[in-house]
Amino acid sequence: MGVALNGVRTSSEDVADNTGVKLAFQAYKKLTAHQSATIEQMIQTHLNYTQDQLFFLAHAQLFCGVYKKEHVAEIISVASHSASPFRIIGPLQNLPEFSEAFKCPTDSYMNPKTKNTIW
Fold first, then answer.
1. Is the Cα torsion angle 47, 53, 59, 64 positive or negative in sign?
2. For the chain, N or C: smaller number of CB within 10 Å?
3. Alpha-carbon distance 100 to 87, whole Å?
């Protein structure tokens, strides 16, 4: 994007984004723990994604959008949240379950060796 982020201004919201997706995924796994394998197979056959992959795609879709560069610069200069792409990429890079779901190679962009975790 070519615009520097202000990590001090966004840090509390970045922590919330990281923690939120982690907690949401744990809740989702509890909810689907007793689901039949038939449902998973049906979803994968018709959509070509696993249920876990669909969870992460739905999460990312929340922040989808198209922004002009000058608008992003304005948002970054005043907002308490990171720009939308970073609200997707950052938390998912830090979540091992995402890397497992999409089989991201170790030390790749979406599966860095060092992950930032709170708890």
1. negative
2. C
3. 20
